[in-house]
Amino acid sequence: KAGVTQTPRYLIKTRGQQVTLSCSPISGHRSVSWYQQTPGQGLQFLFEYFSETQRNKGNFPGRFSGRQFSNSRSEMNVSTLELGDSALYLCASSGERGREETQYFGPGTRLLVL
Amino acid sequence: AQTVTQSQPEMSVQEAETVTLSCTYDTSESDYYLFWYKQPPSRQMILVIRQEAYKQQNATENRFSVNFQKAAKSFSLKISDSQLGDAAMYFCAYRRLWVVFGQGTRLTINP
Fold it and tell me: Which residue among A3, A42, A45 sits closest to B99, beta carbon to beta carbon?
C-alpha cells in the first residue's frame, strides 16, 4: 500500500496570503489528522476529520481550517498568514482494522512565511 | 489536559549497545494508547511501537521494547543493539481522543 502523501512538500508565502495544503491518506483509512511542528512548540494537534466530519479540534485560531472529501483526502487552509505560521505541517491517517487508533504520518509540508 | 513529558532532550549511545529513553504522561483516563515515533533528520515520522493501556504485557518490535508502568504513568523505550540508522528524534505520544506528543529526545549513535 502507498503511504500518506502530502502536497506540496515545500511552500513559501508572504504575510497576509492564504495557503492550502493537501493530504491523501493510506488507502482504506477514513481518518485524517493534521499537526503543526515547530522547534519552539513541538508537535501540536490541529484537527481530525473522519468521514468528512471534523471529529476533534485543537487550540488554534479560526484562521486554520480543514475539510475532508468523500475519498478521504483532506485539505488544510490557513488564511491571513503570519510569520509564526512557518512550520512543518504533518498529516496522519488512521483506520487500519484492529488498529484504528494508530496514526501513520506523511512526509509533511514545510511552509515558510516571509 | 493530558501531557507527555520526555525528560531527556538528548541522549547518545555507542553502536551495538542498549539505550533507554524515558517518558511519563499525565491522564485521568484508564483506556488509552501510547506510542513511540522516530523522526530521522529531514525525514518522515515513523511508528516504532504501540502499547494498549489495558494490556499489561509490554510491547516488543524486534530490537525495540517498552517498559509500561501504568500506575506510575511511565512508558520508556529500550533500543537494543543500537544501529547507526537508529539516530533520530524520538517522540513519545499518548492518544485518547487525539494524539499528544512529548517534546522529543534526540538520539545520537556513536560508531
Answer: A45
